[in-house]
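subagent[fold] <- orchestrator: predict structure for attached chain, return tokens only, no commentary.
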Amino acid sequence: MSDITSEATRQRTVPPQSGAAHGRRPRPRPGPRPGRRLAPVLLVGLPLLGAGVDEAFGPGVGVAFAVCAVCGAAAAAAVSGRAGWWWVLPAVPPVVLAATAAAELAGNPAAYPGWKETGTGAVRWAVNGFPVMVAALAAAGAVVLVRLRRAAVRRAAGRRAEGARRG
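subagent[fold] -> orchestrator:
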């Protein structure tokens, strides 16, 4: 009885054979993507940079903000992995709205002395920022779709090559 128990215990504790033991090259373990920590910086930092540039040259956000918001969203999607896309894509509209509000409040605080003026301004920021939100979200979505397509093509090519080797 003890021989059966010890054999079962030994089988559970022995690690499985690696691919090298079977004549295959072991697969590298997927680790965290190098840009994982860079994605939030790009997603938030670039729109804030563009808003700051626009506020330095006049009141309100403009073209520099729009370009930086779109580039930041696309770059954040490009450096993120599949798990990161789940927070990058939904975060784009709130980040754009928050950057617009921060730029307006910091660049022209005299125009918003009370809650009523700030509320009216918030509606205007949301309406004026909507095209930028859509463009940034479309750019990030396009990056995700391109990466998914490239991965699918690579998988299909790998399957074809494996099928050709098998004959």
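orchestrator: received. Logging for downstream: Residues 28 and 143 are 25 Å apart (CA to CA). The mean pLDDT is 83.
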